[in-house]
Design a protein that fits this description.
With about 160 residues, this protein is of the alpha+beta class. The chain has a single domain, classed as Nucleoside Triphosphate Pyrophosphohydrolase, CATH 3.90.79. Helices cover about 25% and strands about 35% of the residues. Strands 1, 2, 3, 6, 7 and 8 form a six-stranded mixed β-sheet that branches. Helix 2 packs antiparallel against helix 3. It holds the Pfam family NUDIX.
Length: about 160
C-alpha cells in the first residue's frame, strides 16, 4: 500500500474591498507558474513564520496592501498535484482594504482587477478556488464574520511593522 502525502506549505489570501453596496475581490494575473491565470494571493510559509504571518507578508510583497481587518477564512484550499503525487492544503485568509487602497504589483504578476464575486468565480481556473470564493462570500460578505476568526489587531500591527 502506498499513501499519498498531504503537504501544507503555503497560504492563500482573498482580499476584499467595499464598492458601493457590493464587495469586490482582488485577483492577480500570474507570471511564471500558471502564467496568464487569474488567482488570489498565495505564497510559501517561511521557516520562522506562522501561516497568518506568511499570509500578511505575501499580501504586502505581492500587492503592497495592508489589510484593515484580517481573518482566518475557516477553510483550506485543497488540490492534488500530479507532478508531486501529493495533496496540498493551504489555509485561507481574508483581508479587507479601503476602497481607495492602491495595489502595487511585484514581478510575480502582470495585472490585477477587482471583480465582483460572480465575475471572480468565472475568472479563476480551479474548482477549489471557486469553492473558496463562494465560502468567503457566504461567511464574510453575506453575514458578519465570526469575531473568533479575526487575527487580533495587535498581531496584525506587529506583523505589518
Amino acid at each position: 500500500m502506498h499513501e499519498i502525502p498531504i503537504r501544507s506549505f503555503a497560504v492563500s489570501v482573498v482580499m476584499l474591498r467595499q464598492a458601493g453596496d457590493t464587495h469586490e475581490v482582488l485577483l492577480l494575473r500570474r507570471n511564471g507558474s500558471l502564467e496568464g491565470e487569474w488567482c488570489q494571493i498565495a505564497g510559501a510559509i517561511e521557516a520562522d513564520e506562522t501561516a497568518w504571518q506568511a499570509a500578511l507578508r505575501e499580501v504586502n510583497e505581492e500587492t503592497g496592501l495592508r489589510p484593515t481587518r484580517f481573518y482566518s477564512a475557516d477553510i483550506c484550499e485543497q488540490f492534488y498535484e500530479a507532478d508531486r503525487n501529493a495533496i496540498s492544503l493551504l489555509p485561507v485568509f481574508v483581508g479587507y482594504v479601503h476602497s481607495t487602497a492602491i495595489v502595487t504589483l511585484n514581478a510575480e504578476h502582470s495585472d490585477f482587477r477587482w471583480p465582483t464575486f460572480d465575475e471572480a468565480v468565472r475568472l479563476v481556473p480551479f474548482a477549489g478556488q471557486r469553492k473558496v470564493l463562494r465560502h468567503i462570500q457566504e461567511e464574510f460578505v453575506d453575514r458578519e464574520p465570526s469575531a473568533w476568526l479575526q487575527i487580533r489587531e495587535a498581531e496584525v500591527v506587529a506583523a505589518n511593522g
